[in-house]
């Protein structure tokens, strides 16, 4: 009790210095949490990916397509329960900065993605409308899309202006489900291509395979790729997770930098905090010497310094961690649909708290070692 | 040069069982030990040598000092600046170690104690009074006096009670919740005196306790030390360069060029 009181009183001796240190800790903790969450968001698609689904794509690269007639052959592969086709559209909504993913899909997709929840009647409306589109809740909120609205996308891969009518809005089953995508009928895309660029018709970006038994993923992948070996378009089949990670890998360098910066922030605040504690301990050398003269051991001195350092670090870390949630929400809103899933994970929160405690501990290390080992006579001399 | 002292035969072959008695788990042994204690000096210095190293050269400060201080004494230690008064006091108080020689204080050969044992020993046997008071600025008067009692097994209530009593003895009952910054120099030094006596130590050491005080406050503080000595029989060693302050003691010893002069008995009070 007495000790805790002494520690708290000590930490309030230089109010401004303590306050600035705490502010620094808050900023560092928030920055660390935000950067970690950005990294998480980068991998969110892969994390949410199902292991019951395989993606079959062109073996050369994602840029190359596969003929739609592979669909029938894929259905025949043992272990495949259902097949759906999809294409990346890559259109621009009004301005290039309004980025969100757009997929041309065949209706079989719907049953294969139970994590996307859409009301029955909206689904029916969509299936009936050739130009119909289904959008995620988050996307609808970002751009104010409502059912019945006509949305025009300017094609980049597929030239021209494309009109769609919103027929449904889907929600995510999990918090981590991406609800920022835009889906429309592959047949609409294909029919248009048949008219305008016949050589690019009847092609898809990928096939999604639903497995009857997820445990057989490796075996089925091998069988599928063997089936198309030596054909005009060889395939590469992998789990949805591996497929998503492949996307992320293209931008891995950025993720590495973001990670490095997040730890750098912690390192900097550690240096600042260590300097504060060193300054504090140096000023109080005569007090520590007095305590030692009175018979207090080195442990007591260490406790005072570690206690103060940890108390300051914990307060800053705690406030910073709490502040991360609203800041992340605001950040996600600002970023729009760039990060479809932007949640501060439990792991990030525990890392923030652990980092704050670590900062407190390490900052106290050198000052307390010095204070513990100061010769009483020398320490007392620093009074006058 | 120093080996001479260490190699010399021990001139005071003190009885070994007596030495550790103060630390022993049975503080009240027999009447025989009690009487033995009465006679034994509280402080016994034997050929104490201390020098400081400054760069390559060694500065000798104390060149083989031998003397006793009896229980219940109030001794003033005087001498020119830099003569080693503080050094000597620090050795007696167990916050510094001699190069050679034997130091028996409060019945313990403190040269043999480890740092931790020495710290424990100090907390039980020495009360410190410093020139600049050395109070904890974040603690009020009562808490400052309570501080050394944290090292005892006393309960919080007992600690507070004793701290209050000690502050009462230095007439500061009405300043319990004042912080050092809210007290005058003389009052701060009185708090320090209360802190020094609250553990009921065997010996009180004071290094220039009035060095930072005006005449009136100095007299206050000196009067208090005198009363401590007379009324509760505390043994006190006080370093001072003030002749008038020294007059409050029983005897004065002069330190010059590393040597102690003959003690000068004072008839007063
Ligand atoms: N840590 C140290 N390192 C080097 N020399 C020291 C150290 N401490 C004391 N000395 C030297 O030892 C000598 C005695 O110092 P001490 O402080 O004991 O003197 P003093 O008699 O108390 O003087 P004053 O009256 O000024 O307080 C001085 O010459 C001082 O310079
Ligand atoms: Mg001195």
From TrEMBL, chain A:
UniProt entry keywords in alphabetical sequence: Cell membrane, Membrane, Transmembrane, Transmembrane helix
One GO CC term, this protein: plasma membrane
Keyword Manganese among UniProt keywords: no
Residues spanning the membrane: 20-43, 253-278, 299-324, 344-366
Keyword Transmembrane helix: yes
All residue ranges annotated as the ABC3 transporter permease C-terminal domain in the record: 260-373
Membrane topology: Multi-pass membrane protein
Signal peptide span: none
Subcellular localization: Cell membrane
Ranges of residues in domain MacB-like periplasmic core: 18-226
Chief location category: membrane
Name under which the protein is recorded: ABC transporter permease
Organism of derivation: Candidatus Methylophosphatis roskildensis
């Amino acid at each position: 009790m007495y000790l805790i009181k002494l520690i708290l009183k000590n930490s309030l001796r230089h109010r401004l210095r303590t306050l600035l240190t705490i502010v620094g800790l808050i900023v560092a903790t928030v920055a660390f949490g935000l950067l970690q969450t950005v990294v998480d968001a980068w991998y969110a698609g892969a994390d949410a990916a199902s292991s019951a689904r395989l993606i079959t794509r062109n073996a050369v690269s994602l840029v190359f397509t596969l003929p739609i007639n592979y669909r029938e052959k894929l259905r025949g592969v043992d272990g495949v329960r259902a097949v759906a086709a999809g294409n990346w559209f890559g259109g621009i909504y009004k301005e290039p900065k309004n980025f969100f993913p757009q997929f041309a899909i065949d209706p079989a997709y719907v049953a294969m993605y139970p994590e996307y929840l859409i009301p029955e009647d909206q689904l029916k409306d969509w299936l009936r409308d050739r130009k119909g589109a289904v959008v995620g809740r988050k996307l609808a909120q970002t751009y104010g899309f409502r059912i019945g609205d006509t949305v025009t996308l300017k094609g980049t891969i597929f030239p021209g202006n494309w009109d769609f009518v919103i027929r449904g809005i889907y929600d995510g089953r999990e918090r981590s489900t991406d609800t920022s995508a835009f889906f429309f009928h592959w047949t609409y895309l294909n029919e248009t291509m048949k008219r305008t660029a016949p050589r690019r018709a009847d092609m898809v970006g990928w096939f999604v395979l639903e497995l009857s038994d997820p445990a057989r993923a490796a075996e089925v992948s091998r069988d599928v790729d063997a089936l198309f070996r030596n054909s005009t378009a060889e395939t590469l089949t992998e789990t949805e997770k591996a497929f998503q990670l492949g996307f992320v890998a293209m931008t891995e360098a950025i993720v590495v930098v973001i990670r490095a910066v997040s730890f750098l922030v912690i390192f900097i605040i550690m240096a600042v905090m260590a300097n504060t504690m060193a300054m504090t301990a140096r000023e109080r050398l005569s007090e520590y010497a007095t305590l030692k003269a009175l018979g207090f051991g080195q442990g007591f001195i260490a406790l005072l310094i570690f206690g103060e350092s940890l108390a300051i670090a914990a307060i800053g870390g705690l406030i910073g961690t709490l502040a991360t949630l609203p800041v992340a929400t605001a950040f996600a809103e600002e970023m729009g649909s760039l990060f479809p899933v932007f949640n501060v994970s439990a792991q990030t929160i525990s890392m923030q708290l652990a980092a704050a405690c670590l900062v407190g501990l390490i900052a106290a290390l050198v000052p307390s070692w010095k204070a513990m080992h100061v010769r009483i006579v020398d320490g007392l001399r620093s009074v006058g | 040069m120093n080996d001479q002292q260490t190699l010399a035969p021990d001139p005071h072959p003190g009885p070994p069982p007596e030495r550790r008695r103060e630390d022993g788990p049975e503080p009240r042994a027999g009447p025989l030990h009690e009487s033995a204690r009465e006679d034994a000096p509280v402080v016994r210095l034997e050929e104490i040598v201390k020098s400081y190293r400054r760069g390559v050269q060694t500065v000798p400060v104390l060149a083989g000092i031998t003397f006793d201080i009896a229980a219940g004494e109030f001794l003033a230690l005087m001498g020119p600046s830099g003569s080693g008064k503080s050094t000597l006091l620090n050795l007696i108080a167990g916050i510094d170690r001699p190069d050679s020689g034997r130091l028996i204080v409060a019945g313990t050969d403190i040269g043999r104690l480890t740092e931790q044992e020495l710290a424990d020993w100090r907390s039980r046997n020495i009360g410190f009074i410093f020139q600049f008071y050395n109070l904890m600025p974040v603690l009020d008067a009562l808490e400052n006096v309570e501080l050394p009692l944290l090292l005892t097994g006393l309960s919080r209530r007992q600690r507070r009670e004793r701290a209050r009593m000690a502050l009462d003895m230095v007439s500061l009952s009405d300043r319990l919740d004042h912080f050092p910054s809210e007290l005058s120099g003389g009052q701060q030094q009185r708090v320090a005196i209360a802190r020094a006596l609250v553990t009921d130590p065997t010996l009180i050491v004071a290094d220039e306790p009035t060095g930072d005080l005006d005449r009136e406050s100095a007299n206050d503080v000196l009067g208090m030390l005198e009363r401590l000595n007379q009324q509760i029989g505390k043994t006190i060693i006080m370093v001072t360069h003030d002749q008038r302050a020294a007059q409050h003691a029983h005897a004065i010893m002069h330190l010059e060029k590393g040597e102690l002069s003959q003690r000068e008995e004072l008839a007063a009070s």
